[in-house]
Protein backbone atom coordinates (compact mmCIF):
# COMPACT_ATOMS: atom_id res chain seq x y z
CA UNK A 1 0.00 0.00 0.00
CA UNK A 2 1.02 3.62 -0.48
CA UNK A 3 1.85 5.42 2.76
CA UNK A 4 -0.53 8.32 2.15
CA UNK A 5 -2.67 9.96 4.83
CA UNK A 6 -5.76 12.09 4.13
CA UNK A 7 -8.02 13.33 6.92
CA UNK A 8 -11.76 12.88 6.49
CA UNK A 9 -13.45 16.31 6.74
CA UNK A 10 -16.24 16.92 9.20
CA UNK A 11 -19.56 16.01 7.61
CA UNK A 12 -23.19 17.01 7.94
CA UNK A 13 -26.42 15.03 8.25
CA UNK A 14 -29.83 15.50 6.69
CA UNK A 15 -33.05 13.72 7.62
CA UNK A 16 -34.91 11.87 4.85
CA UNK A 17 -37.95 10.11 6.23
CA UNK A 18 -36.66 7.59 8.78
CA UNK A 19 -33.09 7.89 7.52
CA UNK A 20 -30.12 10.11 8.33
CA UNK A 21 -27.92 10.73 5.31
CA UNK A 22 -24.35 11.83 5.88
CA UNK A 23 -22.51 14.05 3.42
CA UNK A 24 -19.37 16.16 3.11
CA UNK A 25 -19.81 19.61 1.56
CA UNK A 26 -16.77 21.22 -0.08
CA UNK A 27 -16.10 24.14 -2.43
CA UNK A 28 -18.55 26.35 -4.31
CA UNK A 29 -20.04 26.53 -7.78
CA UNK A 30 -22.05 24.01 -9.76
CA UNK A 31 -23.40 21.31 -7.35
CA UNK A 32 -21.76 17.97 -8.07
CA UNK A 33 -22.84 14.85 -6.17
CA UNK A 34 -20.44 11.95 -5.69
CA UNK A 35 -21.88 8.48 -4.96
CA UNK A 36 -19.65 5.59 -3.92
CA UNK A 37 -19.36 1.90 -4.64
CA UNK A 38 -20.63 -1.06 -2.65
CA UNK A 39 -17.57 -2.75 -1.19
CA UNK A 40 -17.18 -3.30 2.56
CA UNK A 41 -16.52 0.01 4.29
CA UNK A 42 -17.14 2.16 1.21
CA UNK A 43 -18.27 5.77 1.56
CA UNK A 44 -18.06 8.69 -0.81
CA UNK A 45 -14.99 9.95 1.03
CA UNK A 46 -13.19 6.60 0.86
CA UNK A 47 -13.93 6.43 -2.87
CA UNK A 48 -13.48 10.05 -3.94
CA UNK A 49 -11.45 11.75 -1.22
CA UNK A 50 -8.31 11.55 -3.35
CA UNK A 51 -9.86 13.75 -6.09
CA UNK A 52 -12.38 15.77 -4.07
CA UNK A 53 -10.17 18.84 -3.69
CA UNK A 54 -9.52 18.94 -7.43
CA UNK A 55 -13.23 19.07 -8.23
CA UNK A 56 -13.89 21.52 -5.37
CA UNK A 57 -11.66 24.14 -6.99
CA UNK A 58 -14.61 25.33 -9.08
CA UNK A 59 -17.55 23.16 -8.02
CA UNK A 60 -19.64 22.56 -4.92
CA UNK A 61 -18.75 18.97 -4.10
CA UNK A 62 -21.31 16.90 -2.18
CA UNK A 63 -19.88 13.53 -1.16
CA UNK A 64 -22.98 11.64 -0.05
CA UNK A 65 -23.09 8.33 1.81
CA UNK A 66 -25.95 6.21 0.57
CA UNK A 67 -28.29 4.51 3.02
CA UNK A 68 -26.50 1.51 4.66
CA UNK A 69 -23.05 2.95 3.84
CA UNK A 70 -20.42 5.15 5.43
CA UNK A 71 -21.79 7.31 8.21
CA UNK A 72 -25.40 7.26 7.00
CA UNK A 73 -27.99 5.28 8.96
CA UNK A 74 -28.66 1.60 8.36
CA UNK A 75 -32.43 1.03 8.55
CA UNK A 76 -33.52 -2.01 6.48
CA UNK A 77 -35.90 -1.59 3.56
CA UNK A 78 -37.78 -3.94 1.25
CA UNK A 79 -38.45 -2.01 -1.94
CA UNK A 80 -36.80 -2.09 -5.40
CA UNK A 81 -33.18 -1.44 -4.51
CA UNK A 82 -31.95 1.27 -6.88
CA UNK A 83 -35.23 3.17 -7.00
CA UNK A 84 -35.33 3.33 -3.21
CA UNK A 85 -31.74 4.51 -2.94
CA UNK A 86 -32.53 7.12 -5.62
CA UNK A 87 -35.58 8.26 -3.68
CA UNK A 88 -33.47 8.75 -0.56
CA UNK A 89 -30.69 10.62 -2.38
CA UNK A 90 -33.27 12.79 -4.14
CA UNK A 91 -34.92 13.53 -0.80
CA UNK A 92 -31.56 14.49 0.69
CA UNK A 93 -30.91 16.93 -2.15
CA UNK A 94 -34.38 18.40 -1.68
CA UNK A 95 -33.68 18.92 2.01
CA UNK A 96 -30.30 20.54 1.30
CA UNK A 97 -31.90 22.82 -1.27
CA UNK A 98 -30.25 21.48 -4.44
CA UNK A 99 -32.53 21.83 -7.47
CA UNK A 100 -30.13 20.22 -9.96
CA UNK A 101 -26.66 18.69 -9.78
CA UNK A 102 -24.14 16.80 -11.86
CA UNK A 103 -23.29 13.30 -10.63
CA UNK A 104 -20.02 11.35 -10.50
CA UNK A 105 -20.65 7.79 -9.41
CA UNK A 106 -18.90 4.48 -8.85
CA UNK A 107 -20.52 1.04 -9.01
CA UNK A 108 -23.76 0.92 -6.99
CA UNK A 109 -23.73 4.72 -6.87
CA UNK A 110 -24.02 4.72 -10.64
CA UNK A 111 -27.03 2.40 -10.58
CA UNK A 112 -28.67 4.70 -8.05
CA UNK A 113 -27.97 7.77 -10.17
CA UNK A 114 -29.38 6.09 -13.30
CA UNK A 115 -32.60 5.35 -11.41
CA UNK A 116 -32.69 8.95 -10.20
CA UNK A 117 -32.04 10.36 -13.69
CA UNK A 118 -34.95 8.31 -15.06
CA UNK A 119 -37.39 8.95 -12.22
CA UNK A 120 -36.52 12.58 -11.41
CA UNK A 121 -34.79 13.91 -14.54
CA UNK A 122 -34.96 17.52 -13.38
CA UNK A 123 -32.44 16.73 -10.63
CA UNK A 124 -29.67 15.34 -12.85
CA UNK A 125 -27.61 17.57 -15.12
CA UNK A 126 -24.65 15.52 -16.36
CA UNK A 127 -23.87 12.01 -15.19
CA UNK A 128 -20.63 10.00 -15.00
CA UNK A 129 -20.95 6.27 -14.27
CA UNK A 130 -17.99 3.97 -13.56
CA UNK A 131 -18.07 0.22 -13.00
CA UNK A 132 -21.84 -0.01 -12.44
CA UNK A 133 -24.13 -2.96 -13.20
CA UNK A 134 -27.63 -1.45 -13.57
CA UNK A 135 -28.87 -4.26 -15.83
CA UNK A 136 -28.22 -7.98 -16.02
CA UNK A 137 -25.65 -9.42 -18.36
CA UNK A 138 -22.40 -7.85 -17.17
CA UNK A 139 -19.43 -10.02 -18.12
CA UNK A 140 -16.62 -10.02 -15.52
CA UNK A 141 -13.01 -9.69 -16.54
CA UNK A 142 -12.51 -13.39 -15.76
CA UNK A 143 -14.88 -16.08 -14.44
CA UNK A 144 -12.76 -16.31 -11.28
CA UNK A 145 -13.09 -12.59 -10.60
CA UNK A 146 -16.82 -12.78 -11.28
CA UNK A 147 -17.21 -15.49 -8.68
CA UNK A 148 -15.04 -13.58 -6.18
CA UNK A 149 -17.10 -10.44 -6.73
CA UNK A 150 -20.42 -12.18 -6.16
CA UNK A 151 -19.15 -13.75 -2.95
CA UNK A 152 -17.07 -10.86 -1.59
CA UNK A 153 -19.58 -9.31 0.80
CA UNK A 154 -20.75 -12.62 2.25
CA UNK A 155 -17.20 -13.92 2.56
CA UNK A 156 -16.07 -10.78 4.35
CA UNK A 157 -18.73 -11.00 7.06
CA UNK A 158 -18.92 -14.81 7.32
CA UNK A 159 -16.44 -17.41 8.54
CA UNK A 160 -15.30 -15.61 11.64
CA UNK A 161 -16.21 -12.11 10.48
CA UNK A 162 -14.16 -9.28 9.01
CA UNK A 163 -10.37 -9.29 9.07
CA UNK A 164 -7.88 -6.87 7.61
CA UNK A 165 -6.55 -9.66 5.43
CA UNK A 166 -9.98 -10.22 3.89
CA UNK A 167 -10.45 -6.51 3.24
CA UNK A 168 -7.03 -6.19 1.63
CA UNK A 169 -7.71 -9.16 -0.62
CA UNK A 170 -11.05 -7.72 -1.78
CA UNK A 171 -9.55 -4.32 -2.51
CA UNK A 172 -6.40 -5.64 -4.19
CA UNK A 173 -8.09 -8.33 -6.29
CA UNK A 174 -11.40 -6.70 -7.24
CA UNK A 175 -11.00 -2.94 -6.94
CA UNK A 176 -7.36 -2.15 -7.72
CA UNK A 177 -4.83 -4.02 -9.86
CA UNK A 178 -2.96 -5.42 -6.89
CA UNK A 179 -2.41 -3.81 -3.54
CA UNK A 180 0.59 -1.55 -4.20
CA UNK A 181 -1.50 1.49 -5.18
CA UNK A 182 -4.05 1.32 -2.35
CA UNK A 183 -3.70 4.44 -0.17
CA UNK A 184 -3.16 3.58 3.48
CA UNK A 185 -5.78 6.11 4.61
CA UNK A 186 -8.42 4.54 2.33
CA UNK A 187 -7.77 1.07 3.71
CA UNK A 188 -7.78 2.27 7.33
CA UNK A 189 -11.05 4.18 6.96
CA UNK A 190 -12.78 1.36 5.10
CA UNK A 191 -11.74 -1.04 7.85
CA UNK A 192 -13.23 1.32 10.47
CA UNK A 193 -16.48 1.87 8.58
CA UNK A 194 -16.93 -1.83 7.83
CA UNK A 195 -17.09 -2.56 11.56
CA UNK A 196 -19.75 -0.03 12.59
CA UNK A 197 -22.23 -1.74 14.95
CA UNK A 198 -25.33 -0.66 13.01
CA UNK A 199 -23.87 -2.14 9.83
CA UNK A 200 -23.05 -5.41 11.57
CA UNK A 201 -26.59 -5.51 12.94
CA UNK A 202 -28.03 -5.12 9.42
CA UNK A 203 -26.28 -8.31 8.39
CA UNK A 204 -24.82 -9.52 5.07
CA UNK A 205 -28.01 -10.90 3.44
CA UNK A 206 -28.52 -9.36 -0.03
CA UNK A 207 -31.59 -11.43 -0.93
CA UNK A 208 -35.02 -9.83 -1.25
CA UNK A 209 -35.77 -10.51 2.41
CA UNK A 210 -32.49 -9.27 3.84
CA UNK A 211 -33.37 -5.60 4.30
CA UNK A 212 -31.03 -4.31 1.60
CA UNK A 213 -33.75 -3.89 -1.00
CA UNK A 214 -35.24 -6.11 -3.67
CA UNK A 215 -32.79 -6.76 -6.54
CA UNK A 216 -33.69 -4.50 -9.46
CA UNK A 217 -32.88 -4.49 -13.17
CA UNK A 218 -32.92 -0.98 -14.68
CA UNK A 219 -33.40 -1.98 -18.33
CA UNK A 220 -36.66 -0.03 -18.47
CA UNK A 221 -34.99 3.03 -16.90
CA UNK A 222 -32.09 3.47 -19.33
CA UNK A 223 -34.20 4.79 -22.24
CA UNK A 224 -35.72 7.37 -19.87
CA UNK A 225 -32.33 8.91 -19.01
CA UNK A 226 -32.06 12.23 -20.86
CA UNK A 227 -29.00 13.56 -19.01
CA UNK A 228 -25.75 13.46 -21.00
CA UNK A 229 -24.08 10.36 -19.58
CA UNK A 230 -20.45 9.25 -19.73
CA UNK A 231 -19.70 5.61 -18.98
CA UNK A 232 -16.12 6.01 -17.77
CA UNK A 233 -14.70 2.48 -17.64
CA UNK A 234 -11.44 0.80 -16.79
CA UNK A 235 -10.27 -1.78 -19.28
CA UNK A 236 -9.36 -4.00 -16.30
CA UNK A 237 -12.55 -3.54 -14.27
CA UNK A 238 -13.06 -6.89 -12.52
CA UNK A 239 -16.85 -6.69 -12.50
CA UNK A 240 -17.71 -5.78 -16.10
CA UNK A 241 -15.71 -5.54 -19.32
CA UNK A 242 -15.87 -2.32 -21.40
CA UNK A 243 -18.20 -3.94 -23.95
CA UNK A 244 -20.87 -3.90 -21.26
CA UNK A 245 -20.43 -0.13 -20.88
CA UNK A 246 -20.83 0.25 -24.64
CA UNK A 247 -24.09 -1.67 -24.49
CA UNK A 248 -25.33 0.62 -21.71
CA UNK A 249 -24.41 3.74 -23.68
CA UNK A 250 -26.52 2.59 -26.61
CA UNK A 251 -29.62 2.52 -24.39
CA UNK A 252 -29.16 6.10 -23.15
CA UNK A 253 -30.19 8.98 -25.40
CA UNK A 254 -26.99 10.96 -24.88
CA UNK A 255 -24.59 8.22 -23.82
CA UNK A 256 -20.87 8.01 -24.54
CA UNK A 257 -17.98 5.80 -23.41
CA UNK A 258 -14.40 6.46 -22.35
CA UNK A 259 -12.18 3.46 -21.62
CA UNK A 260 -9.15 4.09 -19.43
CA UNK A 261 -6.18 1.91 -20.30
CA UNK A 262 -4.93 -0.13 -17.33
CA UNK A 263 -7.85 1.17 -15.26
CA UNK A 264 -9.47 -1.00 -12.59
CA UNK A 265 -12.68 -0.55 -10.58
CA UNK A 266 -11.49 2.45 -8.53
CA UNK A 267 -9.82 4.60 -11.18
CA UNK A 268 -10.50 7.74 -9.15
CA UNK A 269 -7.88 6.56 -6.65
CA UNK A 270 -5.72 4.36 -8.84
CA UNK A 271 -5.36 6.99 -11.61
CA UNK A 272 -6.62 10.22 -9.95
CA UNK A 273 -5.09 12.78 -12.32
CA UNK A 274 -6.37 11.10 -15.47
CA UNK A 275 -9.74 10.41 -13.89
CA UNK A 276 -10.19 14.05 -12.84
CA UNK A 277 -9.08 15.32 -16.25
CA UNK A 278 -11.53 13.12 -18.17
CA UNK A 279 -14.39 13.74 -15.73
CA UNK A 280 -14.02 17.52 -15.59
CA UNK A 281 -13.72 17.76 -19.38
CA UNK A 282 -17.04 15.96 -19.72
CA UNK A 283 -18.77 17.86 -16.92
CA UNK A 284 -17.62 21.23 -18.29
CA UNK A 285 -18.46 20.51 -21.93
Automatic annotation (TrEMBL):
Residues in AB hydrolase-1 domain copies: 33-278
Alphabetical UniProt keywords: Hydrolase
Ranges annotated as spanning the membrane: none
Keyword Electron transport: no
Superkingdom to which the source organism belongs: Bacteria
GO MF assignments: hydrolase activity
PANTHER family documented for this protein: ALPHA/BETA-HYDROLASES SUPERFAMILY PROTEIN (PTHR46438), LIPASE-RELATED (PTHR46438:SF11)
Official protein name in the record: Alpha/beta hydrolase
The organism of origin for this protein: Gordonia aquimaris
Amino acid sequence: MRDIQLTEPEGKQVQVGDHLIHYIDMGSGRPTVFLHGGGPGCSSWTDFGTVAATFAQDRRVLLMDMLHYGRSSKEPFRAPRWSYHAQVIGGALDAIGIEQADFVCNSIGGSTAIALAAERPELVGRLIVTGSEPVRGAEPLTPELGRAGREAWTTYYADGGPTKEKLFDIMAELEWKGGDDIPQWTFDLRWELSLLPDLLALGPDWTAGGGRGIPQDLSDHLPLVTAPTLFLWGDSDAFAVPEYALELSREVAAGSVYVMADGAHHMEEQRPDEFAAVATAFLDS
